[in-house]
Amino acid sequence: MKVFIAFDGFCESFDIPPGQTVKKVKLMLKDYFHIPLSDDKQERRFLELTYAGGVLRDEWVLTDAGITLCSTIKCIVKEEEKPALCVYNAVTKEKVPIMGDIHLLAETVSKLKSLLSLKCGFPVSVFCLRTLDGKEMYDCNTVSEYNLDLGGTVRLDVWDGWKELLGACVLGHRQNVQRYLSNWEPIFRFQLRVALYIAAHFGHLELAEWLQTKGVRADEEVGVHPYRDWCHDTDHPDVKKCAVHVAAEKGQLLLIRSFLARNILCLECQNALGQTPTKICIRNGQKDCLLYLIMKMWSVVSFPKVTLPMNIYVKVKQWLYTAQKRIYKVKKWAPQFKTHVGDPVVVDGFTEPKMTITNSWNPYIPLPPITNTSNNQPRNLGTPHAAVLLNSSLESFTKHSGRTPRENAVYFLSLAR
């Protein structure tokens, strides 16, 4: 079958044998046009064939794809940069690419967690990174110390029991977020701050409004898990990020308007680098959010006998808020730390980790109780010979899959759920 191949301004005719696949045609074109292709760890250079506006897959046969005699196929060379690392997100079940080159492996794990937080929307204090063989990666170490190569994969794990909560936050489901909140007050407050952080990243306005009615402030830093509150001074610097900073990074104008309407102190809230939401918008090129913040900054606040510029009004509010917190500490005898004697503590490398994802086939869905072993004869099987065959099949299945029939039922019911 004669077809025409358009490549780099030329159009050549080729005789394609019947049953020829797209992959073999690409190899023929590579040799004919002397096209250098590559597939190394950093980039991939490959051919792409298109017909009638659609991309032809390698395993397709030309005639089966509807290509007829004297048809014209377009051939182009595409270059694809490969990620320096891939991170498997245990919550969303997706691989997150981290772009870069060999220099990324010389960065610290702390830097890698910051890059990942910008991509997945999770605060750095709710997840840890592990190699595929289960070795935990600590912030102070470099990525190369864990024997990772370019294009390697690491795993993102979250606090035990948090996978459903974070998944609901990513989707913006307020009812599900409320369902999975903890009953212990310190963790409950921390989860609310985490939920507002994620809502600001993904732009879930309804969820953010509900969280603010629960007393969460957009200018309040996410902080660390209560299990690690005792070592917060040495934790990741991004734990000081607030929900308003995330909204400014992602250009979530509706969220910024909501935050400022409830708390004008968000206008001058600073992150660990001393950057306000205005500076963050400039750095990330968020023009609409920047214009709104500038407009608010240059507005005035009117009272019955006085009118204050917004910057002066914010400073007065900050002074009042600081004074209120100090008075509260004096009256309530608030301790230096939020944790108490007897609260759980996590020490890296010494205590049992609390960020371990359990097997996905655990029995989340209850099954009927196991029948009495004394009555193990299957019912309605017709003949005793059929019962023997069924028991033999079940034993063979268990030996092959490594799971009992009950465990297998739990596994697939969990997937269906």
From TrEMBL:
It comes from the Eukaryota. Coiled coil: none annotated. Residues 107-156 form the Ubiquitin-like domain. Pfam families: Ank_2 (PF12796). Gene3D superfamilies: Ankyrin repeat-containing domain, Phosphatidylinositol 3-kinase Catalytic Subunit, Chain A, domain 1. PROSITE patterns: UBIQUITIN_2 (PS50053). This is Ubiquitin-like domain-containing protein. The lineage of its organism: Eukaryota, Metazoa, Chordata, Craniata, Vertebrata.
